[in-house]
Design brief:
Blueprint: E1 5-11, H1 17-28, E2 33-39, H2 48-56, E3 82-85, H3 88-91, E4 103-106, H4 119-141, H5 150-169
Parallel strand pairs: 1-2, 1-3, 3-4
Length: about 170
């Protein structure tokens, strides 16, 4: 596989889930995928608990920022191959027209930034959400892209999100 696929993770605030997914994709998919993140209504800052977790896992965090999804709909934006919504709010919003006609899928996970609890409980919750995202992204990165047509790939992407939802609720 010679092509580097551009993957955008969307969330409303672009402060935690989508930022973590961007980092995971850039590590897990290095050389094959380029991860990005954005929000429909970005908070303007990366959640401090997300930064703590990412630093614990030795991710570079200096360049991370909360940004508006309009950046990725601009004419000079990277041509997107995949767009994943990781929160239910963003999945229900009317998205911009993305350059490149990317495949889109919803991989919703709970918002760790909305979790209330002690510091230890919050950090554990962030780690759980990170693990869910990392699992999905790892499966995604291992798909045999060269052997899947567009419809088969779209089906597999939906199955990745649905399988985890069933295991979480079941």
């Amino acid at each position: 596989m010679d092509k580097v696929y551009n993957v955008l993770f969307l969330c409303t605030g672009n402060s935690a889930r989508s930022i973590m997914a961007e980092c995971i994709m850039n590590r897990e998919g290095k050389g094959r995928f380029m991860g990005f993140s954005a929000g429909s209504h970005p908070t303007g800052k990366v959640n401090p608990d997300a930064l703590v977790l990412l630093k614990q896992f030795n991710y570079p965090t200096g360049e991370l920022r909360s940004k508006n999804w309009d950046e990725f709909a601009a004419p000079d934006a990277p041509k997107l191959d995949f767009v994943f919504t990781v929160c239910d709010s963003a999945a229900g919003e009317v998205c911009p027209v993305w350059p490149g006609n990317p495949m889109t899928v919803h991989w919703g996970v709970p918002d760790p930034a909305a979790f209330e609890g002690s510091d230890a409980e919050r950090h554990a919750y962030f780690a759980d959400i990170y693990g869910r995202l990392a699992n999905r992204i790892s499966i995604f990165c291992s798909l045999p892209f060269e052997r899947l047509d567009r419809l088969s790939l779209q089906t597999r992407l939906h199955q990745i999100g649905e399988a985890e939802q069933e295991s979480v609720s079941g």
